[in-house]
Amino acid sequence: MGIQLKERYEAVGREMGPLGRMKLAMLTKMSSTAAADAEDSSSNLSLIDDAIAQLRKAM
Amino acid sequence: MRISTKLIAITLGSGVIVSGLILSLVLELKSVSTGYTHILQGPVLQAAAARQAQVDFNVQVLDWKDILLRGQDPGDLAKHRLQFQAQQAKVKAEVEALAVGVDDATSRTLLTDFLITNDTLNAKYQAAYGVYVKQGLNSKAADAMVRADELAPNDIFDYVVTQLNAQAVASAANEKAKAIRQLVILLMIVGGLLVVDSVVYCMVLFGVIKRLGQLKAVSDRLAVADIEGLSIDISGHDEIGAIGDSLKGVEAALHELLAVHAH
């Protein structure tokens, strides 16, 4: 299960609020529910990390 | 491949096919024109030259009659004899040139026959002239020696002209058949290419219409946030695939919004 993925989503929620979570979902094409069900694979982690970096850059 | 690239490729393909058709038709027209020019410059022109040689031959015969009828005066006799000899040389040169230039073997043989017959006739004219002078310019015996001898050479000219005209007609029919054959082949090739082009165009068009329909169905559901059980399966490396991919982001964002709202 995507424990690390879900943690990253929660971190983004704390850092950027609900809008940040929505933007993260839009960039990764994966909601937090889907992230929780997904595998913590390197490709998924890389996808979400890249999206978070993109969001931080845009802030 | 992008849709725009496909459409440009199909349009360019159609343009190349149509340009090829136009170019081929121009070349075909040139080929037909060249074929008919060869006929005109060959048997048609040679038939006209044979007719001209026949006319000149008959002028030669008239010049002979002028010697007999108007040669009572020594001055007139010399003048008409010169005219006759000049005409003899002209006819011989014309027929020799024609015999060399003519392509048709039968016509060449006939012209060679004419030259032999004409040489014999000229020898008879020479002998008749000797009799004419020897008998004190009495034309009766000289005329009897060559009377009606011009008929056979005239017939040869008629055969040559008939033969060359028949060759011209046969060549024209051959050119026509060749042109029709080439045109049919050309139209079959171009028609085949246009059919292939049209089939590819229809496949692209119907593919785009079908996927646009799928895109619209997804878009309609996203517009009312009806995302429960929504599956966006619009793939591909083109513009529609890219829009479908973007809609997956919108769907995920809507899911997230609903999840945030639920908490």
Walk me through the structure:
The complex is a heterodimer of chains A (59) and B (263). By secondary structure, chain A is mainly α. Chain A has 3 helices and no strands. The model of chain A has no long low-confidence stretch (mean pLDDT 92). Chain B folds into 2 domains: 25-186, Four Helix Bundle (Hemerythrin (Met), subunit A) (Up-down Bundle); 192-262, no CATH class. Chain B has 263 residues and is mostly helical. Chain B contains 6 helices and no strands. Classes of the chains: A mainly alpha (59), B mainly alpha (263).
Number of continuous helical runs of chain A: 3
Query: Care to count the β-strands of chain B?
Result: 0
**Unreliable sequence segments of chain B:** none
Using only CA atoms, what is the Rg of chain B?
A: 43 Å
Summary of the model, kept short:
The complex is a heterodimer of chains A (59) and B (263). By secondary structure, chain A is mostly helical.
What descriptors fit this protein?
heterodimer, A: 59 residues, mainly alpha, 0% strand, globular, B: 263 residues, Four Helix Bundle (Hemerythrin (Met), subunit A), 2 domains
List the helices and strands and how they pair.
The complex is a heterodimer of chains A (59) and B (263).
Chain A: H1 3-28, H2 32-37, H3 42-58
Helix pairs in contact in A: 1-3
Chain B: H1 3-70, H2 74-101, H3 105-134, H4 139-146, H5 151-223, H6 239-262
